[in-house]
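note to self — DONT lose this again. spent like an hour looking for the file last time. sequence + predicted structure for the chain T wanted, 185 res
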Amino acid sequence: MSEEQTSSRGKKEAWEWIKALAVAIALAVLIRSFLFAPFIVEGESMETTLHNNEKLVVNKAVYLLREPQRGEIVVFHAEAGRDYIKRVIGVPGDTVEMRDDTLYINGKAVPEPYLEENREKVREEDKPLTDDFGPVTVPEGQIFVLGDNRQNSHDSRALGSISIDSVVGRAEFVYWPLDQIRWTR
């Protein structure tokens, strides 16, 4: 093989690597921008469902197809440069109210089985898990969100309803720490 043929083959191989790398980077940008994103839980507002410093995957694509639904855990832009993670309690048109530690949506009591562990903790203190509020009607294009750790959560009780446009996506599964891998639903 001549020196010229070796040089040509080397350039062709380098070009193939550059194209493969460009395609991989473009796919990574598309996936991260439109389909899935990593998120780190900061704080205790979703205890005992999610824990401080757990890492999870957020599904961004699901809300391209439909709006958030009650019970889903969503990540949303709460402040400049800061995202929150909370549970959707009310969707547009719902009337949300908390009385005597019972959630009422549109006048009907709604069970919240994800709060059982937190309820057990406050029973020992003889306090309600969630103070009374409402009724609050959720406007069109908005959702009402609460943290599962109701006594330590900055949520729609303080922030008001959250614009659906500010929702980043739905929390899908925890991938870190490795011994805590699980679905969030």
